[in-house]
Specification:
Shape: globular
Helix content: 25-40%
Strand order of the largest sheet: 3-2-1-4-5-8-6-7
CATH topology: Rossmann fold
Low-confidence stretches: 1-6
Number of helices: 8
Number of strands: 8
CATH architecture: 3-Layer(aba) Sandwich
Strand content: 15-25%
CATH class: Alpha Beta
Radius of gyration: 17 Å
């Protein structure tokens, strides 16, 4: 980690170290990130459908996101970046963990994918004036220190009229029971200590921060796990645990 990164207010060094230690696990479907592999189809469909609708593109095209500039914040090993690149998007993917970025770069090279991976932070990219059609903030917010400031920084990276997608966990007792006790201790989907309940975010809090950052929420939906099909599905009426939001940056007048 660079010296500049240690001064970033939103950067939680313990969280970075935690995920750096698991860098080799990213592309193991049944490894420590198995839950994200299972979660990926519903995340990708949500991003594709709402991005194409907002940008006037064909969701059924062979490359539905052709030419769309996408920033994947906290990309980890590239689980979202790679499929979006295959959809034709011009993907820039960042992570404060150098080990994660190296893992992602090697895997993308082996797959023949052109993804701009960078070992940097949202704050540093914003300071450089970065702007994108779509900004992804997927399963990141619950791992940063200054959440309102981080949302504002991420929002500044969306061009006027651009989109930001957020996926995170609600701060409810149901979420504590399922996302921590159930997922980490009973089902062992995730390593112990992956999540901290006090860092979970209610939809109301997130929408407030987005509004303060000049973004309008276009859609929100819960995401629930079906134990019979072993798949994650959108569950619009149940946002008590996992949920996703789509927001749009206001166009300049």
């Amino acid at each position: 980690m660079t010296d500049t990164q240690t001064t970033i207010p939103s950067l939680d060094e313990a969280e970075v170290a935690k995920f750096s230690a698991m860098a080799a696990e990213w592309w193991k479907p049944h490894g420590k990130f198995a839950v994200l592999h299972a979660f990926n189809p519903v995340r990708l469909q949500y991003i594709r459908d709402h991005a194409t609708a907002a940008l006037g593109l064909d969701p059924k095209a062979k490359k539905p996101l052709a030419g769309v500039s996408i920033l994947d914040i906290g990309c980890g090993g590239g689980l979202i970046s790679e499929p979006l690149a295959r959809m034709g998007a011009k993907v820039t993917a960042i992570d404060p963990s150098e080990k994660n970025i190296k893992t992602a770069m090697v895997h993308a090279a082996e797959a023949g994918l052109d993804i701009d991976y960078r070992n940097t932070t949202a704050e540093e990219l914003a300071a450089a004036g970065g702007k994108f059609d779509v900004v992804l903030n997927m399963e990141v917010l619950e791992h940063v220190a200054d959440q309102p400031a981080f949302v504002a920084t991420c929002a500044s990276l969306a061009r006027p009229g651009g989109l930001m997608f957020c996926a995170t966990i609600n701060r409810t007792m149901k979420a504590f029971a399922m996302a921590i006790v159930g997922a980490e201790y009973i089902l062992r989907w995730l390593p112990h200590g992956t999540h901290q309940w006090e860092k979970f975010i209610t939809p109301g809090e997130l929408k407030k921060w987005l509004a303060e950052a000049g973004m309008e929420v276009l859609d929100e939906t819960g995401v629930a796990y079906n134990p019979f099909t072993r798949k994650w599905l959108k569950s619009p009426r149940d946002m008590d645990v996992n949920y996703m939001l789509t927001a749009r940056a206001r166009k300049q007048s």
